[in-house]
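User: My instructor asked us to take a sequence, write out its structure as tokens, and then describe one feature of it. I'm not sure where to start. Here is the sequence I was given:
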Amino acid sequence: MIQSPQTIQVSRDGVVHEATIAWRTEDRMWVVSIVSPAFEPVEERAFDAFEALCRVREKLEPEGWRIGVAGAQADVWPSGMARDQGGGLKAYRMTEEQVGGLVDTFEPVDPATVTTVADQRAEADRLYEAIRRNAQNG
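Assistant: Let's start with the prediction itself. The structure tokens for your sequence are:
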């Protein structure tokens, strides 16, 4: 399991900067914060760490920022159980054929490989539908 805080990369307009992302629980909520010299610190709360990360991303995305963590990649999305029992610290990497292995939500990745929350949600919906279709036809 990846430990908090974590040094990651963030990017805007192809320019990469370092940032520190941290997560913790506080009053039964998950708190995710990100700090970088490139922008003002952002902190958000939610019932799981993945959702708190999504809220942080939604604050930074309108300014063009992309956060380089596995939990921001288009083909990664947590199950309800991963959220309820694991706090959203792990999520599944999916294909059109199956829900694949677990990845650490805050695992550092190249920010060029991530997408927006809206695009990620749409891709997760598309992949879940493809998996259902393939299961029915298989």
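For the description part of your assignment, you could build on this observation: The longest helix spans residues 117-137. Try explaining in your own words what that tells you about the chain.
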